[in-house]
Amino acid sequence: MTALPPDRLDEARRQLRTLGARVTYPRARVLAELLAAHEALSHLEVQRRLEGDTDHAEPIDRVTLYRVLEWLVEVELAHRVSGPDRVYRFSAQPAGQALHGHFRCASCTRMFCLDEAPGLARVVKAMLPEGFSSDGVELTVSGRCAACATAGEPLAPHSHSPA
Ligand SMILES: [Zn+2]
Ligand SMILES: [Zn+2]
């Protein structure tokens, strides 16, 4: 397990200060993990990363981790998306900016934020029947991530199991 790049912790603290929020170690540490990740992370994945980083002596217990992740979503420093296994995954990319979709890999079940799609809100609005209004869109593209496509990984059997 690789250690967290130190600049991520600085960036996390900066974001918390900009928000006017109290900068606590668990908040900064968890946000830093999300900032450092290239994919959306589940509670368990964040927990494993925290545990795997032996440079940091201060442990963050499960309850605190749950609370911090929910709080980060609440203050819009992170957002969450439900994965192929119906487990929430968290990403540091702010949800408030522009509408973006997610990619879920059917082989490794990882979730990735896609680039912002400025025209997407307009397209969705055009699809709504007369008199309907939307307050959220979940767009998920499924397939194989670059790593799995390159490796020729087979699709995971559970990816097609009924809900
Ligand atoms: Zn994959
Ligand atoms: Zn996202």
Explain this structure.
The protein has 163 residues and is α+β, with helices and mostly antiparallel strands. The protein has one domain: Arc Repressor Mutant, subunit A. The strands form two sheets. A three-stranded antiparallel β-sheet has the order 1-3-2. The longest helix is centred in the first third of the chain and has 14 residues. It binds zinc ion (ZN) (2 copies).
Question: Briefly, what is this?
Answer:
The protein is α+β, with helices and mostly antiparallel strands. The chain is 39% helix and 16% strand. Strands 1-3-2 form a three-stranded antiparallel beta sheet.
What distinguishing features does this structure have?
163 residues, alpha+beta, Arc Repressor Mutant, subunit A, three-stranded antiparallel sheet, three-stranded mixed sheet, 6 helices, binds zinc ion
